[in-house]
Amino acid sequence: MEKKKTDDSEPVPVIAPVDRFGFLKQEQGNSPHRFIKTRSSTNYEKEERRVTKWRKMIGAGGSDWKHYLRRKPHVVKRRIRKGIPDCLRGLVWQLISGSRDLLLMNPGVYEQLVVYETSASELDIIRDISRTFPSHVFFQKRHGPGQRSLYNVLKAYSVYDRDVGYVQGMGFVAGLLLLYMSEEDAFWLLVALLKGAVHSPMEGLYQAGLPLVQKYLLQFDQLVRELMPKLGEHFTQEMINPSMYASQWFITVFSYSFPFHSALRIWDVFLAEGINIVFKVGLALLKHCHDDLVKLPFEELMHALRNFPEDAMDPDTLLPLAYSIKVAKRLEEMKQDGEKAVAKPAQTVNPKMIKDVMEALRFAWSPSSWDMFLWSIGLFSSYLKLLRASIFGSKSIPISSSIVQKIGSSRPICVVTGVTSGIGKATAFALAEKGYHVVLVGRSPQLLSETLKEIKSKNKDAQLKSFVVDMSCFSSIFNFKDSLEKWLSDAELHPSIQLLVNNAGIMAISSRPTNEGYDRVMATNYIGPFTMTKLLLPLLENSSVPSRVVNVVSFTHRYASIGKVDKDYVTGKHFTTYNQYPHAHVYEYSKLCLLLFSYELHRQLRLKDDSHHVSVIAADPGFVKTNLMREYPKYVSAFAFLSFKLVGLLQTPDEGARSSVDAALAPSETSGVYYFGGKGRTIKSSKASRDPKLGKQLWETSCGLFDQLQSYND
């Protein structure tokens, strides 16, 4: 017998090691199979005793379950909280969720939905299948049994409940269920959860606008402030809200990127006791890490909230702490308060209203309130200039109604920052309508995803790409530049962009330093846009058609104290020397710097190339009703909105975005001008903003900061 030639034989496939749940083993990281402990013989014997107890409790095929539950509910609750044996988990989940009854009452329905019905969500489901538990052997193979089963369950539900259809987070829920039961069983358990067979219906987690997610996040935020007031105050100061870190907790019930063993224990309790355990576990995570979280600045805080330490997520540590937190009564009170508020308006003045009024009065006597009063004069001044220009025959600059120039067969590409709300979102909508391929840049992944879906829902032809970028974090901006270039290369697009809209901006009533020690308002409103522009300028210059930078400025610059434009002023360190943070002054100064930069960049580009290949325009949206003033006392912002509405100067985000869109679509030779009031109209900005000497000094200071930041990121 001839021996086989080993060098000609096919290579033997290497079988990757997996844990007892079927996940590929990894040494570190956020893989969902962390904390899988090796089981000693003692643990094995203990587990066998637990299985025996459970089998006696539920009976053959679950026949004794309801009887035992009626007789000894406290025993059942205690045993579930200790963890359901893994070999019985699928059956017990069906029993405690009520899905077994639904299955028996609806024979043949699942097959009908899978085989004979079609779904409008099929392409979305196919696109997302490979993203569900990608490190689990059951779901790894493309078009394998796991992916086919997941597709069938999600498609069936999207047909069963067309109002909900399919939302991405549902994949992790269905995937988790499929690891413990058949397709049909998993489908009916999904129905039981969303339709409320035992507990409150959860379909609102996946309906348009995610109404139940919004409700739970508001309640969670209130619980954090009541149970951990110091942490709640720190979150307020750092502008952190639960949508930035807790949305997936509710949407997937911790099945997304949470240690799998811990997720299973949470699901045991969730199916038995309902949504309250999600609140409890979330609060327990924050409580466990409380002392560390209250010390962290924004960037580190966001990282910590998305990457909890391993000991915090160990179920033997986490769940006992969660069980000790009482939330049921308070959640019921919040629910009743919400129902009363909907049923009828409040008849009496409540303590919170009094507190809000007192905060507004204190603010009215602060030095910054006078600065903000001057802003209104600045706004009236801008409109007077607009009126004077119209009377004396100043012509508006014509704008295009659509995009005409393409880069080969591709659409021109524009980058818009701060797109998750307000003017930025409206600008992104409008530019997508005009034919741009819009690159959405925002800080919150959740809000960024919602914005992308919202634009797509209203404009199916929109071409969009999103990137998570924090404009106050310079490493984030540098990383974005690399990611953008990689995307252009991978998508086989021309290595250029045609438009950059620096829209992102914040107002803050307290000083909050960045990692570099810069004031966060100055970092977000000026240094960030300067850095973004410098990094993307080569892509703008590489465009085969004229390109443009649009900087979104503000009428508040008219009353900004010039002071200096040295490093201490530009980084905001100078403002830390004040007894009280001069928030109004910092904001108006940041906008003056952005305007000085706009004009100086225009001059620098003209010196380099007088062909107007890259043009620069400043766009002032006026006074717009957005969440920019969210940190200010409630009645201060309400009074401001009402006052400007009465005189006809309050604009919607769509109206405010007109100046940015006009600037984007202006003729290529237009550069170094100040757009205001929409309809292609321009006016003169303040004398200080047009000072070339001051602009040159600011340019040199900013370039020095940029070089320093670049050296840190090399």
Q: What percentage of the residues does DSSP assign to strands (E)?
A: 5-15%
Question: What assembly state would you assign to the polypeptide chains in this entry?
Answer: single chain
Low-pLDDT residue intervals, each spanning 5 or more residues: 1-14, 33-37, 344-349
> Main β-sheet: number of strands, strand sense, barrel status?
7 strands, parallel
User: Which of globular, elongated, flat, extended, rod-shaped describes the shape?
Assistant: elongated
Number of strands: 7
Describe the structure.
Helix 27 (520-541) links the parallel strand 4 and strand 5 (547-552). 55% of the residues lie in helices and 5% in strands. With 714 residues, it is mainly α. Strands 3-2-1-4-5-6-7 form a seven-stranded parallel beta sheet, with helices on both faces. 39% of the residues are buried. The chain has helices at residues 41-58, 65-71, 73-82, 89-97, 99-105, 109-115, 122-129, 137-140, 145-160, 170-178, 183-195, 211-227, 229-237, 247-252, 260-273, 276-288, 290-293, 298-306, 310-313, 315-323, 328-343, 351-364, 367-391, 422-433, 445-458, 474-490, 520-541, 567-570, 583-608, 634-646, 653-656, 658-665, 692-713, and strands spanning 413-417, 437-442, 463-468, 499-502, 547-552, 614-620, 673-676. It is built from 33 helices and seven strands. The N and C termini lie far apart (63 Å).
